[in-house]
């Protein structure tokens, strides 16, 4: 299963580019990246046993590092950690798509994006869902040997 890690990295790189330019879609991001990449990888690589914890966490780490590299590639200069530190310090914000479209007080509060603590909270929630979808998605496409 680890032979397919470059594919996961490329999928996460594209997701990072998309996220930087179009905004953060909290649960849709985890769903498409976790299950979509597992499904697409199953088209090219048939596994005959379930993936263990090490494999799942290697895939998750590859997805997160690839997405961070996608943030860096979307900028005029490659500086993903600089962008990440600016968001954490609330010097810049990232638009959270679903909350920005809501009306009322919530919509007004999140229209200009989030940074700092709320950004960390939404990303932790998304990372937990990404972990869940990777764990289920990788082990869904297991093919048993006949014979």
List the SSEs and their pairings.
Elements: H1 5-22, H2 26-44, H3 53-74, H4 80-88, H5 97-100, H6 104-110, H7 117-140
Helix pairs in contact: 1-2, 1-3, 2-7, 3-7
In short:
This protein is an all-alpha fold. The protein has helices at residues 5-22, 26-44, 53-74, 80-88, 97-100, 104-110, 117-140.
What can you see in these coordinates?
This protein has one domain. By secondary structure, it is mostly helical. It contains 7 helices and no strands. The radius of gyration is 17 Å and the shape is globular. Helix 2 packs parallel to helix 7.
Number of domains: 1
- Residues in β-strands, percent: under 5%
> Count the strands?
0
Please identify the structural class as seen in this structure: mainly alpha
Q: How many H/I helices? A: 7
Mean pLDDT: 78
Outline: globular
Question: What series of H and E elements makes up the topology?
Answer: HHHHHHH
The whole-angstrom Rg is: 17 Å
Largest sheet descriptor? none
Fraction of residues in helix:
over 70%
What are the salient characteristics of this protein?
7 helices, single chain, mainly alpha, 147 residues
